[in-house]
Amino acid sequence: MEQEPDVIFLSREHVDGLVALERICFTMPWDEAQFSRLMNGEHFKVLGIMEHGELKGYLSFLKVRDQAEIISLAVHPDSRRRGMGKKLMKALLDYCRIHGVQWVSLEVGLSNVPAVELYTGCGFQEVGRREKYYSDTGEDALVLQLEMADALKLPFSQQV
Predict the structure, then answer these.
(1) Separation CA 81–CA 83 (nearest Å)
(2) What would the pLDDT profile of 62-108 be if each residue is shown by its tens digit?
(3) Contacts of residue 20, Cβ cutoff 8 Å, sequence gap at least 6
(4) SS3 for 83?
(5) Distance CA 25, CA 23 (A)
(6) CB atoms < 10 A from the CB of 35, how many?
(7) pLDDT tens, 10-68?
(8) What is the spatial distance between Cα 34 and Cα 41, in angstroms, rounded to a whole number?
(9) How far, in Å, CA of 21 to CA of 127, rounded?
(10) What would the 3-class secondary structure string for 33-58 be?
(11) Any idea which residues carry the catalytic annotation?
(12) Residue 118: strand, helix, or coil
């Protein structure tokens, strides 16, 4: 039986894989310069799942003081529906608990039902909407937020 891949922190050596996955998953992908610039800073972090030497999923976020903002979450189409998004979210929330994060926020497209279900299943709640947020589609975004104190109150069986 094959071992379940672990979530790791990605570094600049993973930028090519990030760019390749972005191109597969998003209509307006980030390029190498964008990732490299942010990865040089102290606030931008990327969690990833590698499988057979290939990046299969990642979650990028900014952490400043007691707040975190999810920037992007992507899972390769061939690896979806295998729990990788949930595994990345669990790793993020574990990191947030350890590092004193009080609030986690994000924006997600209204039509991205699998992502909305993932986030709300983790305890995120809608706190607003941004009209025509996505410039490529003109779609509105839901603004979701999780108060970490609320996440810690969930019974263990409901935690990510």
Answers:
(1) 6
(2) 999 999 999 999 999 999 999 999 999 999 999 999 999 999 999 99
(3) 55
(4) coil
(5) 6
(6) 22
(7) 999 999 999 999 999 999 999 999 999 999 999 999 999 999 999 999 999 999 999 99
(8) 12
(9) 29
(10) HHHHHHHCCCCEEEEEEEECCEEEEE
(11) 107, 119
(12) helix
Into how many domains does the chain fold?
Answer: 1
Q: Domain containing 121 — which CATH number?
A: 3.40.630.30
- Tell me the residue ranges of DSSP E strands in 33-140: 44-51, 54-64, 67-75, 103-109, 125-130
Task: Say how many residues make up the chain.
Answer: 160
In a domain, 150, yes or no: yes
Query: Would residue 139 count as lying in a domain?
Result: yes
Tokens of 7: 């979530």
- Residue 160 in any domain: the answer is no
The tokens for 89 are: 């979210």
The contacts of residue 44 (CB under 8 Å, 6+ apart) are 38, 60, 61, 62, 71
Domain carrying residue 141? 7-154
The answer to whether residue 101 is domain-embedded is yes
